[in-house]
Amino acid sequence: MDQINSLLIMLKAKVNASLLFFKSDSSIINNLYIFILIAGVTYVCWLCISLTLSFVLKRSEKYEFIKINESAYKTIRKICAYLLYMLSGTVVIQIYEIELIERIFYAALILMIAKPLVDFINIMLDILEKKVAAKTDTDLDDIIFNLLKKFSGVIIFLLAIISSLGIIGVNIMPFVAGAGVAGVAIGFAAKDTLSNLIAGVLLIVDRPFEVGDRIEVWSAPSGSSTWGDVIDIGLRATKIKTTDNIIIIIPNNEIMTRDIVNYTLNSAAIRVRVNIGVAYETDIDKAKEAIVKVAESCEWSSKTPKPKVVVRNFGETAVDLQLRVWIDEARMRMSTISYITDNVKLAFDETGIEIPYPRRDIYMIKD
């Protein structure tokens, strides 16, 4: 700081020395000479900066990156202009030594620089968004970049306002304390909303599912489909459309506290299990062969691995078999179960295999 003051004193001496030629008995005329000289130097410097930036922009037109981001040069021009104004204003203020004007000047300059700084950060975020988010199929990256744009602007403007008030001499501690108390009160009043917002950010970062994934829905209406496709992931809630075309909106906080069953996160292929019972008198190998043929006849079933039938249990009235068949599309799960049960019944009828049902034998004993 001492070095800067020494430099300004030296600059003031040089300016005064250069004004000896225009020396007048009137201090007002002398001050006017100084102001005109500084304004002229500032204008010449700005012309040099402007021409340099224009030259760089024209020379860089062959690069696609520069063509897309010409607005960044406009923002840089504004920042350079404000910095030049700050330098010139500092020289003028130090020469005239007016403390109040100095504080107001610096406070206003900080507020002016905040806007182009926010624009520059948004431009950089747009570039990153095109480079990163465009390579993914999900909209979650877009949500993250939108959040960064909004919060970065708010933070920069708040810091600019606080810094400006501090430079002017306003005691900002009561405002900070009041804002803290108000923040605590708002936090308690909107704790559910804030909890959903935080859960929404965690969903975006953790990615247990993405838009288009098919997941299990635990809060579906009674008697309706219990799974559906994710159609939107918001900051407060997630929207899921079930196979009955019902839109279920679930708060993100509730999602984060439940087990999430995602059928399509790893791949679209899943294994379907279908339980089938046959009578104890049935030839098990014959029944397995009939079930496997039905599974292989399903158009959307996978060829490898092949369908497999296992004995699960010996029930009270039946031998419990289970078909395990892989399908290429998880969304065909219910259609697969329906196809298998319908056609297994027909195959069993043709081959004489009995599908048992609960029954009781009653013996009448005559005394």
Percent helix: 55-70%
Shape descriptor reads elongated
Supply the number of helical segments. 11
Radius of gyration: 38 Å
The tally of strands reads 7
Uncertain runs with pLDDT below 50, 5 residues or more? 18-26
> What structural category characterises the helix and strand content?
alpha+beta
Provide the succession of SSEs.
HHHHHHHHEEEEHEHEEH
Let me know the average pLDDT: 75
The percent range for strand residues is 5-15%
- Terminal-residue CA separation: 120 Å
Main sheet: strands, sense, barrel: 4 strands, antiparallel
Strand arrangement in the largest pleated sheet: 1-2-3-4
Provide a descriptive summary of the structure in words.
With 367 residues, the protein is an alpha+beta fold. Among the domains are: 2-97, no CATH class; 200-256, SH3 type barrels; 270-351, Alpha-Beta Plaits, CATH 3.30.70. It is 59% helix and 13% strand. The chain is built from eleven helices and seven strands. The strands form two sheets. The chain has a four-stranded antiparallel beta sheet. It has a three-stranded antiparallel beta sheet with strand order 5-7-6, covered by helices on one side. Strand 2 (227-233) and strand 3 form a beta hairpin. It starts with a helix and ends in a 16-residue tail after the last helix. 13% of the residues are buried. Residues 18-26 have low confidence and may be disordered.
